[in-house]
Amino acid sequence: MIRTICVCGARPNFIKIAPIMRAFETNGNFQTLLVHTGQHYDENMSRLFFDDLGIPRPDINLEVGSGSHAVQTAEIMKRFEPVVSDFEPDYVLVVGDVNSTIACGLVAVKLGVKLVHVEAGLRSFDRTMPEEINRVLTDAISDLLFVTEQSGVDNLRKEGVDSEKVRFVGNVMIDTLLANREKARKSKVLQKLGLSPKEYGVVTLHRPSNVDDIDKFSRIIAAFEEIEKEMKLVFPVHPRTRDNIKGGKLERKVEAMENLLLLEPAGYLDFLCLMSNAALVITDSGGIQEETTILGVPCMTLRKNTERPVTITQGTNRLVQITTDDILKSYREIRARGKDHTYSVPKLWDGKAAERIARIIAADG
Ligand code: UD1
Ligand code: UDP
Q: Is 206 tagged catalytic?
């Protein structure tokens, strides 16, 4: 049996780890320990996803909670090290680009355990993003690098990573989407919120560069003040964003907007149902750029760059600068186009990425 520790910690990790846990079980060659670092801990940022996606309960929760980057990363490392020493795995598998990813990756390689990185090679080339640092460093120490799109293969080649270690397998986040699309259709969230298909927009925001900077956040909110005159906006609010809205002048502004529906962070199935039926999505999320590509829903990404360029070249995604005018211009272009937009499914985004990952590790081990 191949002894593997699978790591998850933050919301997007749960969505990526779900199909991997299932594929390891089906493959039959794996003995797996699931470790939750506790980076995200609210019910609706964590447990809800285990319920919605049928992920087994974590064997161990390190319960690190929130903190500065240094404190959080160090605390995860301190608590993860004895787990690795006790379990003596052949592999530690990490996903994505959050602090839990790099923290557990570092612990693994320093204990001489092979490191597997799922979603390797993505680059925004913007080192002011904490995620970019986490990506570059995790890739530099990984033994097997599973890539979602061709740009990732190209980036790793340019960085001199041995091509033997790099495998283009597709996208586990899309495995989860395709496996849950039917279930999400049964969600009653539209009725509950009084929404009609294709007549509303979905908003998510949580990048520090957008929501910790009150000036930028105000420009975004000013655009919403115009958009909500024409279209309802559904906004499940990330805890970081909630903390930034609370108590300030932005709180009064958002509360005054009748057609801006502020919600708690949504569960996966409700959120997938909301996205699938939306006229457009406005976001700064990484994963949502990919999901809207598969759903064919126009996506405005409020960022200067993206580490996921295939969502623009093949998908429905576009980058929008953070000014009120740019946001409104982009919104109007999408509205004017109506249903007339073309897109295609990126290579290997076929629901089988996790199966490929399990097969490759089984053959390697
Ligand atoms: C983290 C990831 C980011 C990812 C995002 C997904 C890093 C550096 N950032 O950002 O890449 O896109 O998760 O959602 O790893 N909080 C709660 N409850 C929770 C979790 C967080 O209240 O369950 C609050 C705390 O005040 C915390 C803040 O949100 O300080 C930020 O949480 P943190 O995990 O540090 O970063 P995110 O912004 O969530
Ligand atoms: N998501 C969700 N509920 C929400 C917002 C997002 O289920 O209220 C899902 C979304 O569909 C995607 C993932 O969370 O699968 C993306 O996570 P997030 O945007 O927090 O992180 P990022 O992808 O930016 O790292």
A: yes
